[in-house]
Task: structure prediction
Amino acid sequence: MRYLRCPQQPKKLYLVPQQSNAAYSSTADVEIWVDAIEFQGGQINLTYDSECANVTNWMRNTTNFLIGGWTHYNGRVWITFLTMEPQPPLLTGKYMVGTLTIPCENETEEGGETSLAFIAPSTLLNDTGNPVTATWKDGIFRCGNAPPCLGSCCNDPECTDPVNTNVTCTDCLSTGNFTGSRTRMRHASTARYLSSCA
Result:
């Protein structure tokens, strides 16, 4: 008789999306997911820069995790989750633990960025309370719009006469009182062009 031994699935806890953003006074919904073997629940200690972001709500996936709670502190949240089904109460596979609501707290034009970091004593647990080994993948939250497009601000479409390089459309416009689209900016008889936008 021959046996095929399959490699174990990767065990991880991660965020969806891994990189999120929200404008000032807006929020982003960020899901916490687990992909592991034979776990019953866990505890999460998630930290962030409170000058950039906040967590105002946690909605646990009560379909799979009937028991749990959350506590909010300045710059971090403490989350617990536990399943009671099936019997024995061990889950294997991908499960959404719940959803965080994260508003942007930085009203400056530059915004800001913070890591959403899982720190100790974050852990997955089996039905006897012992740790289940897993990789914890941190995320990033950007306060403000997505990173701006940068390019060269030029006086002609071919960009043979650059005014400035590595600038945003707003900065290109601010070289004069120009108005127009993101790629062609015109004021009276003078035009500004933003090229190589990436």
Q: What stands out?
A: DSSP finds one helix and 18 strands in the chain. The chain has two domains: 12-143, 151-195. The helical segments are 169-173. The first strand starts at residue 12 and ends at 16.
